[in-house]
Amino acid sequence: MTGTTLAFLVVTLLTATLNVGIAAADLTRARFVLANSAEVGVPRTWLPWLAALKLAGATGLLLGLFSAALRPLGIAAACGLALLYLGALVFHLRARVLYNLAFPGFYFTTAAASLALAVSS
Asked: Mind listing the pLDDT tens digit for each residue in 29-83?
């Protein structure tokens, strides 16, 4: 196993796991999710849809990871997640909620890294 392949495996699994976790928090309407979404101007009605996008992204990442034939699906999923978190960053910046900008930034970074590694491997 090459270094790139190992990085692809680890980063993709991390990204998928993080997205399943935050989707679960969205679906259960965790207190921190409700507080953050209200602060940045995301309506509560969006939470199930955002959770569905995160779960779809995680699923696509895993399918692309474990099947070379489905690698394009994994690439599309990583791209979709990166765009989702880019949107989250924009919402934080627009609302001037900067104290927790690192969270969507971290999720964006993992999705972008998954995308770069999926394309390169």
From this structure: 999 999 999 999 999 999 999 999 999 999 999 999 998 999 999 999 999 999 9
The domain segmentation of the chain, as residue ranges, is 3-120
Structure tokens at 17: 């796991």
The two three-digit tokens of residue 30, written as one number: 């965790």
Retrieve residue 28's tokens.
């259960």
Give every CB contact of residue 84 below 8 A, 6+ residues apart in sequence. 50, 53, 54, 57, 111
Q: Is 17 helix (H, G, I), strand (E, B) or coil?
A: helix
DSSP letter (8 states) at residue 68 = G
Rounded CA gap, 87 and 83, in Å?
A: 6
